[in-house]
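Sorry to interrupt, but I need a hand with the structure work. Could you write out one complete protein record for me, on any chain you like? Could you add the entry underneath, on a fresh line?
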Amino acid sequence: MSSPHSLEPLDRPGPAGARALVDVAIIGAGLAGTASALRLAALGYKVVLVDANAEHPEEFRAEKMGLLHLALFEKLGLDGIARPALTPMLDNQVYRLGRLYARKDIPEFGFSYAQLVNTLRRAVPKEVLCVTGKVTEIEPLAEGRRLRLADGTEIDARLVVISTGLGEAVRRMAGVKRTVTSRGHSLAFGFDLAGQAKDYGFGTLNYYSKRFEERYAYLTFFPIGDTMRANFFTYRDMSDPFVKRFRAEPQAMLRELMPEIESLCGGFELAGPVSVRPVDLSVSEGYKQPGLVLVGDAFCTTCPVPGVGISRVMTDVERLCNVHIPAWFATPGMGVDKIGSYYRDPVKVETDRVGMRVSWYARQVSVGESMVWRLRRGRNQLVRRSLLALRPAPAHG
């Protein structure tokens, strides 16, 4: 596939010290980077995708999405590629105050983050140059940037996209600073239940905290393939004794916290270890630079509790690849004014703003200690108790 926008014909680097000339160099082949490479290749650009790993390693990241998230994959032409890595589910059961509060058929999808990313990677066309290596230098050029890799390979690109997620090295190399606005904002646990997902009495189940003192938002169960997966979102610090105890005896602690659904979950019998992921809220500074753009978690991070991470990341990719890069490449230059249009994009700005707002709200409404939040929790609990008293709980069958 050739591109009318290329600087020069693409030369695939072979031995160390070779050089590639491309339109766009993407550093980081996670969800944002791989999705960007697929979309830009489909639009006819010459792309290089650089990552330290030939395959994305297993890691505990986002594991559930809904139809709104899938719609962003559709806008990028990636829904058909992604679907084999997604497990569809219905029958969403919601427990509040220890009782089955609602039951709805809400389409959702469970997935392993690594499996989803690697499924997308396998779909990257041969026209995209995939390089396994470590970027050691990002050098400004008259038009664009030059990447130097540890093995001596050089890549000249009119535009460099940084999509390295939480990694700091490449951002620092580019002079971009990460500022943490809420350190230890939340703490997520991930684990598998024993047995097959089809044997459980629900498609997905969300169990919300009953008491402020428990310091968690909710526990959610959902299938990934044949496995029933769980994500447990808490507002605790890694040094909290709760964390050590939960990792050591999760089954006993789950029985204490939510005895009402123990029978639905096979007594909370676990299969395998518990993964833990601390979450900070952060923003970037110094990112307005010529020939350089940040997407996804490389730009900012939000909390997984309200479920906005995938929509924020994929909105970045959709706006950058569908709107801004085609406009930028239509004329010479890749200056700060051009790049700034992406950061000013009203859809991106609003998505980032909402992501931060709901991240703070979810924490405060769960564990905020001021009188305002205590009163709000009390009001919410009163309303829910009243609704539960007015009607029988939905049947399990």
The domain at 89-109+183-278 is CATH 3.30.9.10 (D-Amino Acid Oxidase; Chain A, domain 2). Confidence is low (pLDDT under 50) at residues 1-15.
